[in-house]
Amino acid sequence: MATPSSHSSKAGTKGVPRQHRRRQMLEAATEEFGTHGYAAASLPAIAARVGVTKTLLHQYFGTKEELYVACLVPVGDRLLDTVRAAMGEGGAAPHTPLRVLRSIFTALEGQREAWFVLYDTTLPPGGEAARRASEYWAAIDRLAAGGTAELLRAAGSDDPLDADALKYVWRDLVATLVRWWVKHPEQTPEAMTRRCARLFAAAATLTPDERPG
Question: Rounded to two decimals, what is the model's pTM?
Fold first, then answer.
C-alpha cells in the first residue's frame, strides 16, 4: 500500500493537491461501496467518479480491500464515537434511543450510504475488511446491550433474556430506519428524529392485547 512519502505531496492529477485528491477518492469509493456493496463495487467506476485512472487509485490505496478499509475506518470511528457520546449525554433512559438515533442520522447526513460500508454482508470472509468491520459491530453491539439493559431496568425489568432480545430488535430497527431514510433523501436528521419519536409514542399506546404475539 502506498504511503504519502512514496509520492509527491504536490498534486494528484490536474494540479489537485494530493490530500484533496485522496479525499475525493475516499468519498467516491465510500459512495460506490455503500451503494453496490464490496463484491459488486468497481474500481474503474470509483476512478471515473474522480476523473483519475485505476492505476492512480491503486497507487494511493493499494488493493480493493485496502481501499475499502480506508473507507471503513473513518465511518466506523464516526458512528462508534457518536453513539458513545449520545449514550453518555445523561438524562432519562427512555430518551436514550432517540438521542442515539439523532446522533446516527446526523453523523450520516451528507453521505448516508456510508452506513452500508460498515454493515456490508459481501465482504470476503477472513480478510482485513471483514475483521475490522466485525470489531466495529461488536463495539456497537456492546453499547446497544448496555443501553437496552438500562432501558429495561428503567421500565422495571431485570430479565437478561429481555435485554438480549431487545438488543437484537434495536439493531434491526436502526438498520431498517436507515434504509428507509436513504430512500427518502428529503428527510433531514431532525425530521427523522421527530418521526421516530412519533412512531415510538404510537407503539407505546398499544395495549397488551393489541401488541403482536
Answer: 0.82
